[in-house]
């Protein structure tokens, strides 16, 4: 059988279908659908091949983000539905109502794939923006999510209006009666969007900021900012998701200012045993005057005190009327001089040693200064070195840190009392022994 006879037979079979219009229309539509799918595959292959070639050029490297997010694949998927729309008028015996319905259905699929292509484009733009310098300080992920929601909402309205063959304005007018319900349903979305805009526009929060929000258990670095939540990775590596709107309605602490200033505060007190506070004698003054960090201070204070005592010579002979150096005041001056000469303490920021209100635990001497680094590990090392040294040097001034007695201290004290009592008993018995012997002799 040659090709001419085969074509003749097919022509006869196709002409015979004129007697069955419904079957004829269904078969023609099936062939149109198969052809549209095949052409859609071909168009997809051609488009992706051409775009991949263009993406190899350095100036068009951003096309790689569009390819990874399947923007061109979504656009190529509109080819079959477009071919069906344009091919339906050429199908013979197709009822008008069926052709109209199938045309609307194909148009709805076209709109659907266009919506998917648009959302993929938004994702690609987000990926491109994430590689810029601005992405480190300002996140647009919340805005992209809101834009995607708007695209899906309006796309759904258009698709439904196409399928039911009604104007989209008619559906939108019906939504007016549901506005109250929509406000309730999307309350968190609207509140989160407003909060996201305020946080971003006022530069209150950035990815990478260390924030502290005890009421939600957040104490760590911000790793992601979305429309609904802000993800915080705590220092124990747990993740806390905080609703965006709570960051505006409630307070939180942002440590970015500390990190940008270049200094981190040390604010810790040493509790001095108040029973050890006293005046310095002349021997101690001479010894402490030889300490390098105290030489200038001791000379200045001794001159000041001598002048004051000389001016009040009439009452100065009484010790309570004279001004004298104290061990706690000298130690406070030494601690300040030590901080001012420490290489890791920031000298351009506040640095002081102050005495706070005495408590039942002793007299607190607070160290208030800033380190030159903001790194946690280095900060703790510097702080530990400072207090290790100050605690170790306190006995040089006749001072000691207050410490509540432990069980071992109580046992030692009680044991000492018992031993002292036993010694008194033995001494009393020793004194009483001669008198008893004399009585026995008599």
TrEMBL record:
**GO terms of biological process kind:** cellular response to osmotic stress
> Which keywords fit this entry according to its UniProt record?
Cell inner membrane, Cell membrane, Membrane, Stress response, Transmembrane, Transmembrane helix
Q: Which Gene3D superfamilies match?
A: 2.30.30.60
Where, subcellularly, is it found? Cell inner membrane
Q: Which organism is it from?
A: Pseudomonas aeruginosa
Sample GO molecular function, one term: mechanosensitive monoatomic ion channel activity
Q: How does it sit in the membrane?
A: Multi-pass membrane protein
Task: Report TM segments.
Answer: 20-39, 101-126, 146-164, 170-186
What the entry lists under InterPro entries is as follows: LSM_dom_sf (IPR010920), MscS_beta-dom_sf (IPR023408), MscS_channel_2nd (IPR006685), YbdG (IPR030192)
- Protein name in UniProt: Mechanosensing system component YbdG
Starting at the broadest rank, the lineage of the source organism is: Bacteria, Pseudomonadati, Pseudomonadota, Gammaproteobacteria, Pseudomonadales
Task: Please give the GO cellular component terms listed in this UniProt entry.
Answer: plasma membrane
- The UniProt record lists the Mechanosensitive ion channel MscS domain at 188-256
